[in-house]
Structures are given as C-alpha cells and as structure tokens.
Amino acid sequence: RSTDTIRNFCIIAHVDHGKTTLSDRLLELTSTVELRNMKEQLLDSMDLERERGITIKSHPVSMIYQKDKEDYLFNLIDTPGHVDFSYEVSRSLAACEGALLLIDAAQGIEAQTVANAHLAVAQGLEVIPVINKVDLPSAEPERIMEQLEDVLAIPAEEAILASAKSGIGLPEIIRAVIDRVPSPRWLDEKGTRALVFDCIYDAFKGVICYVRVFSGELKQGSSISFMGSDVKTQIKEVGRFSPHMVAEDSLSGGKVGYIVTGIRDVADVKLGDTVTRMDDMAGEMLPGYKEVRPMVFSGIYPLDTSDYEKLKASVAKLRLNDAAFVYQSESSAALGFGFRCGFLGLLHMEIIQERLRREYDLDIISTYPSVIYRLRKTDGTEMEIDNPVFFPDASEIEWIEEPMIKATVHTPNDSIGDMLALISEKRGICQQTETIDTSRVMITARLPLNEILVDFNDRLKSLTHGYGSMDYEPDGYEQSDLVRMEILVNGEPIEAFSSIVHRQKAETRGRALCGKLKDLLPKQLFKVAIQAAVNGKFVARETLSAMRKDVTAKCYGGDISRKRKLLEKQKEGKKRMKQIGSVSIPQEAFVQVLRSS
Ligand code: GTP
User: Fold this and answer.
1) Which SMART domains match (predicted)?
2) Is the CB of 20 under 6 A from ligand 1?
3) ipTM above 0.90, yes or no
C-alpha cells in the first residue's frame, strides 16, 4: 500500500468531552471490531480508568476505511487525558500528522482543551476541531465556535458539529481525516527511524514498544538500537494493532505498530526514544526526546506490617507497566518498612495508591507528599531532597529553592475573586487574566508546585461549583524561605507527619495539624502534649487530657460476657496502634491526618 492512503491521527480533549465514545464509534464504522466483542474492554480497559473517566495508557488502533474504492489505513493513537501525563501526550502526538480536537458543545473550551491544542500545534499537527455532543439540549455550538476563534485562533468554519453518541457528523469527521490530515511525513530521511511512544510489559513477551515508523523499515530479526538510551537488542516480533496485536513481517515508514524486544525491564525503554536499525543507521534522533523525572514523592507503607512482602511484590508489578513510577525501600520509626515512591504528579500518585488498594487489595498509608527541593549548604555542597527527613539543620542552609509551575485556570466570571484569593493563599502570583467569552475567564498564574499538591484542585472545583478546570506545566525553580516542621507527640517527633513548609505558613498548618491530631488520638493514662515545631521552636500546641476511667468501669462488675467483649475490642484496637515512645497512635490517625492536612 502506498503511504498516500495512511492517516495517523489522535483525538485530544478535556476529560469527559467524549474521546472514548468517538473512538469507539470510529472503530464501529470501520468495522474494526465486531460490536459484540467490543464492549468497553477495548479502549479504557482498566477499571480505574473507566471509573474516574480518565485515560491513563495510550491504546493505538489501526483500521481500514474504504472511500472511492480506495482503502485508507487509519492509525488512531489514544492519548492520556491528564496534565500529569503531558509528556506522554506530546510523545503520542509526535507519532501523528493530525489531531481531532474534541470540545463538549455544552461545556466549551476547558484548561486541557487549550493545553492539548497547544501541544498539537507545537508538534506541527493539523488540528481539526470537532464540537461534540450537539445532541444535548444545553449545547451551544455557536458560542463554542466563538471561543475557538478567540482562545485558540482557529477559524470557526473549520469546526465540525458532531455527536459521538447519536452519530451526527461522523461522515464529516472521517472525510476530514482523509482530506485534512496529511499523509505520513519524513519518509525520505536517511536511515531507519521509529518513535517509541509507549511501552507495556507482557509476562510472556517482555517489554513491548509501541512505535511509529517514520523512515526505513523495522523487520523481524533486525538488530536495533535505541538512540537515546543506547540500548541495543533484536526485534523478536513486529506487528500492528487491529485492535489486538497482529504479527507481520515488517513495519515500514509511515506505519504505527509494535515491536517485541528482548528487553525485560520497562525502565530500559525511554518514552520518546528513537529506534534505528544497525544496518540502516539514522544520523539523528527524532526531535522532542527527554527523560521524564518524577515530580512528586511520598512514602507508601502497609497498614499491617505483615503485608510488607505483598506490598513489595505489588509495587514491583505496577512498576513493570509504568516507567514513570519509581520507588525504593525506606523505613520509618512510626510506620515500619515501606517504599519511597516518585510520581509524575498528584493524579499519578492517586492512581498508584488506588490501584494498590483495589487491584492488590492492600491497606496502605501514604506520607505527606513532597516535591524535590534544591538546596545549598553553608559548606558549599548542593543537594536535592524529596523527603523532609533529610532536611538539614536550618543553620547549615545557605539557600533553598522550590519547583514552580505555570498554571492555567479556567473559571466562570463569578468565581474570579475567589479564585484569585485561592491563588494568593497558595503563594501564587496571577500573571494574566484573559476573557474566553462573556461568562468565562482564563487565569495564568505562577505557583509553587508544593502548594497545589494537596487540595488545590478540590478547592478549585468547589469554589467554581464544578465549572472550573486547571492545567499546569513545570516552570523552573525559585528561592524560598522554607523550613521543616515537625510534629511531636509527648515530646517525641513523628517523622511521618513532618513536612517542608513556607515559614509564614508553618504556624497555621501546625495549628491545624495539632488540632486534628487532638481529635484523632485516643486519650492516654496521662496528659499528652501535641506540638508543632520549627527549628526546635514550638509554633503550635494542643493538650490531650488524661483518660479518667477504664473501659470496663461502666459494667458495674455484673455482666461478665459484656466485660470480656469490651476487653477484646480494646485489644483489637491496640493491634492497630503504633507505639511512639509512651503514646499509642492508632493507624487511622495517620491516614486521617495525611489525607486532610
Ligand atoms: P476521558 O477518557 O476521561 O478523556 O473521557 P472521554 O473524553 O473519553 O469521555 P467519554 O467518551 O467517556 O464520554 C464522557 C461522557 O459523555 C459519557 O457519559 C458519554 O456517554 C457522554 N458522551 C460522549 N459523547 C456524547 C455525545 O455526543 N452526546 C452526548 N449526549 N453525550 C456524549
């Protein structure tokens, strides 16, 4: 087949604007999968993805569409929908020539619509705007077309009005893919070049790379080299997705497919790397490659210490399919043995934690999330820390820098005031506000990454009544007045609760944490002080009064079985307690404090 009839494209959209529904519809129309086999299992195959309505992994699919007796090969590359995965999105886009930019006709342009559209343009893709869900009574396609022109500078007449649900506009979408998406580019460059845009781990085959071949050809048995990581291996199997993996003899320029290699560890394959053939070496890598580094760190511990081995096996398994997730073992006085884990962002962290709980049936505790701080000590050494435990003594620090982000927030007009207040509360600086249309604005702000880790998104959602959205990208480092805050219970510091905070926020946060702990800790036989300290100076204090009666006192010696029951209950409670010095802290307190602080 000539490459003139190949179209490589993707669908990009804000969460819930209908990407999965449209992909399914396209598969149906091209009879790629029989309806009854299709179900939801195909795209968005993970439970969690379905439930949270997010696409985590990219699933490419090849389909054949016939037009004017000509067979067109459509390669549809699905992209992850969340900001945490923006590097993965940009690598998936780099495998395409065009993108369908899907916008909900009732919701309009949201933060990720803009972010994704910019990524697509940066990759040189032809962007085809599709206004979806026009079947909804609340659809306002004209308003969305104005937004397109105002916010993205895309001419309104380029938009296709569609409903992935009812089928409106689908023939137009297919025609636009054929007519407007260019056929494969860079075919004639020297040497074989293929882009690795995703990889998965298969228990039998090992690491399987998803590739887009630009020039040359990948064949079964070819000796290949990953140019970025300089790993060399041989292709054991090569094939396409239709939609399941189907082996072929080779994959030539313009095509999308997979290669099975001898590599056993996903960590050895870097997303965005270029594969070349040893007997047809390319001179240069494909553009855009970079190593991704985790941005957010947190400790994960089993609630029940005897689950450690199970947790160890589970994180190892998760790691196999997710090269962006890193971990190493660590231990904490309060929580026992666990792992220090690194994630791309907060959502990525939540996904991993949730999968451990659900798929691996583990009760886990995670410590307060942290970013990577850079600091220089007075003795001239520079270091990076992602764990408050390693924070040096204040007297040894010359300067400390924290990672910043550039955030784009979309909000209804009537929430601007609240939104700006939230940004400033989070130590952010508003850089720009732009009107999207008569009812919405886009705020650009610079904030410390650390400040958006815990509740920023939830608060944004609640103060905009669900109508706001946010996207962010890293924006360098900046010096800041940061300190380590420790929480002490009965004079004993509890590592799991320590955190790195801005000096001005230490007191408020310390008070909140102490107050919370006071509510959560069971009374002890003696009075217990709960304190927050910065550099050995207390910034907050609560006192837990001593317990007066023992639990059986109410039983007046009469009912012996009831007495026993109470004692047993108390014993059970003890099991889930952590002994810190002379005070027992229930595990639940760890979970609660870390969840809400
Ligand atoms: P992510 O995977 O999170 O990016 O979501 P998505 O963009 O794949 O959205 P999905 O296809 O799951 O659709 C979200 C919701 O919108 C679902 O409840 C769909 O049934 C609904 N939906 C999708 N397309 C249409 C449409 O054309 N009309 C109507 N009325 N509803 C639609």
Assistant:
1) EFG_C (SM00838)
2) yes
3) yes
